[in-house]
Design brief:
By secondary structure, the protein is of the alpha+beta class. The protein contains six helices and ten strands; from the N terminus they run H-H-H-H-E-E-E-E-H-E-E-E-E-H-E-E. Strands 2-1-3-4-5-8-10-9 form an eight-stranded mixed sheet. It has a two-stranded antiparallel ribbon with strand order 6-7. The relative contact order is 0.20.
Length: about 180
Amino acid sequence: MRIHSSSVFLAAIAVACASAAAAADKSDKQLIENAISAAPKAVGKDAAVVNWEMKTLRKGTNGFTCIPDDPSTPTDDPMCTDKNGMEWMNAYMSKKEPPKGKVAFAYMLKGGSAASNTDPFATKPPEGADWLHDGPHVMVMNAPDIMALYPHEPVVNQPYVMFPDTPYAHLMIPVK
């Protein structure tokens, strides 16, 4: 098994329309249950939930927002992020620079799949390559000073940088 990082977190956003169509078969209740499974129960129970079209499925009270599984990837990969993380995701979605000075945090406690470990916008693996898989992890985004302290290649069971040398570089921290 190869590991990835949170590129499912990022690449899935790039294919939001396709994901929304595939998720249409699930009820809002099912989407909410899946989305909040990305974070610890204490966080998920009070988090807002949005679908891949960024439509609010449930309002939250704790500053976190959870997003359900992206059905365009081969694994169940919901995510949950803080307010700064949503700003970071919006910058990614619009291919703009992330907001300066706003460190962000996200959970992906079910792990996920990614098409690329280096291309933030890849939606499928290169021809002949397999999807990259990772286990449960948390992410720290928009913290460029700490990126220099960690490997820029995936490391099993140790923190590493995903999407190095891009504005979307982030620290992957396995939690299993």
